[in-house]
Amino acid sequence: MPSPRRNADGRPLAASASSSSSPGSPAHGGGGRFEFQSLLSSRAPGADPTCARLRASDSPVHRRGSFPLAGAGPSQAAPAPLPEEDRMDLNPSFLGIALRSLLAIDLWLSKKLGVCAGESSSWGSMRPLMKLLEISGHGIPWLLGTLYCLARSDSWAGREVLMNLLFALLLDLLLVALIKGLVRRRRPAHNQMDMFVTLSVDKYSFPSGHATRAALVSRFILNHLVLAIPLRVLVVLWAFIVGFSRVMLGRHNVTDVAFGFFLGYTQYSIVDYCWLSPHNVPVLFVLWNQQ
Ligand SMILES: CC(C)=CCC/C(C)=C/CC/C(C)=C/CC/C(C)=C/COP(=O)(O)O
């Protein structure tokens, strides 16, 4: 015969936690409802979304008035199907697994590369240089610089190029804001939000607006300015360094920047396709001439 369980003094336990929940005991409460409800009430209201769901009036307990597992005989109705969000996907698609793995690698790599995320980070002393790169790819200097050059330009060819650069920058702001607002991916947890002049959607990180702008502007410059080879190499390098600095600063995950480069590159193709000129939008250039 098994000996009774004893406490620290060696005295037998009158009612242990395990025996108190045996069927028929007060804690079990006929069908287990008492124990189930005491479990629920031991949590702070709203502390756990799972609890919240169990407490809800449409939970199996409330609906049928008894704990669904204990004492459920064949006469009792089968448990109601779980809501969609509670079902476990036992057969995730290959695409789902691939995406989740990519996301995990992305988060891990981005955290590892975020070496300038704070002053106390391993490369924290490089932070001022990274912030300088941040300003070099910010929307405000590019917009103001383009407007200034447009106002000073005295050739038609120059104006046409600058008008299209302005259109490209505005299109970029619009598309990035739209995608950020739709995707709503939070910036990495290690990011310090100390960027200068941001829009409300800039609390989101996908895609990186700096990466789109760097790719767009560098492709624009390479196609419309006659530059010596070393300068062309510098322009491409600048774009890549701006993108990489976003991850080092902890502002973005790697996929935000990678997609940003892709988007910026594609945006240039759109701008090139819709190229504004006195031939297709004469009104724009006539208005400008009248000023
Ligand atoms: C001057 C003209 C013609 C129009 C102004 C349009 C406008 C709303 C400009 C806002 C520029 C601005 C504040 C851009 C935000 C740039 C930024 C902080 C992007 C975030 O980059 P990310 O790489 O961190 O995603």
Automatic annotation (TrEMBL):
Residues of the region (Disordered) are 1-85
A biological process term (GO) from this entry:
lipid metabolic process
Membrane topology, as annotated, equals:
Multi-pass membrane protein
List, as start-end ranges, the regions of compositional bias called Low complexity: 14-26, 68-79
| SUPFAM superfamilies in alphabetical order | Acid phosphatase/Vanadium-dependent haloperoxidase (SSF48317)
Which key words tag this protein in UniProt?
Answer: Endoplasmic reticulum, Hydrolase, Lipid metabolism, Membrane, Nucleus, Phosphoprotein, Transmembrane, Transmembrane helix
The catalytic activity of this protein is classed by the Enzyme Commission as: 3.6.1.68
Chief localisation class: endoplasmic reticulum
Molecular function GO terms recorded: sphingosine-1-phosphate phosphatase activity
Domain annotation Phosphatidic acid phosphatase type 2/haloperoxidase: ranges: 160-272
- What reaction does this enzyme carry out catalytically? (2E)-geranyl diphosphate + H2O = (2E)-geranyl phosphate + phosphate + H(+); 1,2-dihexadecanoyl-sn-glycero-3-phosphate + H2O = 1,2-dihexadecanoyl-sn-glycerol + phosphate; (2E)-geranyl phosphate + H2O = (2E)-geraniol + phosphate; (2E,6E,10E)-geranylgeranyl diphosphate + H2O = (2E,6E,10E)-geranylgeranyl phosphate + phosphate + H(+)
Question: Could you tell me where this protein is found in the cell?
Answer: Endoplasmic reticulum membrane; Nucleus inner membrane
Spans through the membrane: 165-183, 220-241
Q: Name one GO cellular component term.
A: endoplasmic reticulum membrane
**Organism's domain of life?**
Eukaryota
The family note in this entry says:
Belongs to the PA-phosphatase related phosphoesterase family.
Q: What is this protein called?
A: Polyisoprenoid diphosphate/phosphate phosphohydrolase PLPP6
Q: Which organism is it from?
A: Enhydra lutris kenyoni
